[in-house]
Amino acid sequence: MDMEMIVMKLVVSAGNARSTAIEGLRAAKNGEFKLAEARLEEADKLILEAHEIQTEMIQNELNGKKVEVGLLMVHAQDHLMNAMTVMDLCKEMIDILKINMK
Question: What are the residue numbers of the active site?
């Protein structure tokens, strides 16, 4: 697979993880905590998928296979970091909603 396709897979996985985490938060706002947990589990898997792609790229670079860092690569890394941040915040907010809706 060429580098552009790998980077796009990273963008898609991270973007889907972010969206899925937000779906989980919205479910929790409606008191649907089982659905919220299911969405967070799905988002975790997507983040893991994206992180594995990133780790492989880092390992390749460490082994001498340099990758040109262009706007698409920066965009992909931004998506992953954003997804990880949103995921952390959604988990915390869902925990707060659970406490407040008791």
Answer: 75
